[in-house]
Amino acid sequence: MAETADTDRERAVEFRSVSLGDIEPARSRHMWTRSAVCVAAGGDLVLTGEWDGTVTARETESLETRWTLTHPDHAVGITTLGSDSDSESADAETVVVAGRGETGAIVAYDAATGEQRWRYDTADDIGEATEDTVFYLPYVVGLESATDADGTQRLYAAARRYERDGERREWHSTVYAFDSDGSIGWTYETDASPIAIEADDAGGRLAVGYNRCMGDHDTGLVVLETDTGDLEWTWDPGTEGDRRVGDVSFDGDSIAVSSHGDKRGYLLGPGGAERWRVDLAVETEIDGETLYAYPNHAYANDGRVTFVTGNTYALESRETETRHPNEHRITTFDGDGELRWADEVRGFVHGLAADGTTIVTPSAQNFRVRDPETHAVRRFDLDSGPARVDRFEGIATAAAVDHGTIAAIEESVEYHDEGQTRGEYALRVASLE
């Protein structure tokens, strides 16, 4: 299958930009999630979350600040929760921010003013950090808002914390269902590490993907009833080791799953029945090394399923000069598991953004090759494939697409063998064609 070269779909950059201040430049290897972005209020507002806790709401067209505040922790995730009215204005929405820090705070703010509506500290459930390093901090890894068949709106969240004592390694995690006023409907606790959550379109089921399972909880996917939090069914790739699932995505009664266990993509039906599976970046021997890459993202919509893979790793060594042929790649399949199209994303994708048939990948650095040409926001059409490339000087680390608006975060980067800082910490906003 022929692929479209980046140069064939590059155009003049049309992004409006505003500086986000200072941030420590990223290095050759990709860093943890440090920024978040969200389009809200029917497309009228763009919200940004920063590593120092700053959360800002800006007018989409002018990028003028409507309000700004300081979140209790690093602001690493943002979503919105609507009111019971039909209005899509800022007055009808709540902005919810996920934190990574001492408290693992989930805080709801008024979208029009930034005033705090409610707050919940997940560290009260999953515990406090046992070491003063980022990896040990309580971390809200996912936020998802949904409306059920009765019109009830809820916020779902997943938080986790890691600790290690000698050879003992443990995860503590909780999945939450919040009512719009911040009261808790139910919780689901495990000793595994959640990585992704998504509610189905009807709002009746919540899928939770677990990346690391090294305790009593030994399954990569659980599906919960949203009314009660009761377990409906589970699924697992059935692989050895503690790596299980990378991402989950509903499409009707099907769930797409990217598997970290066997580096494949799956489409599951009700009860976890396997409809099909495809090799994505499975273990492959090249020049005497066994290489693989993790399928990190999945997006399913209207009978199409898209997967995105990440960095190359070697099975028996930490370093390798060789690259897996399917690293940093986006592939889309039809409802029968037949390949529709494929292309490169070239750099590490921290998070996939999608709205209907539009898919956006914020492509950061590729630490194996350290090529600044990988820094870009790439757009794809779910049906036809590659659509556009907008290059950044720095790395693209977060993106959002909604209501005809695309927003992305650029972070500066300094490769270890260059001594040159590329790009800046900035918000980029554009209109979809």
TrEMBL record:
SUPFAM superfamilies: Quinoprotein alcohol dehydrogenase-like (SSF50998)
Any single Pfam family the record assigns to this protein: PQQ_2
Listed InterPro entries: PQQ_b-propeller_rpt, PQQ_rpt_dom, Quinoprotein_ADH-like_sf, WD40/YVTN_repeat-like_dom_sf
All copies of domain Pyrrolo-quinoline quinone repeat, residue ranges: 52-257
Protein name: PQQ-binding-like beta-propeller repeat protein
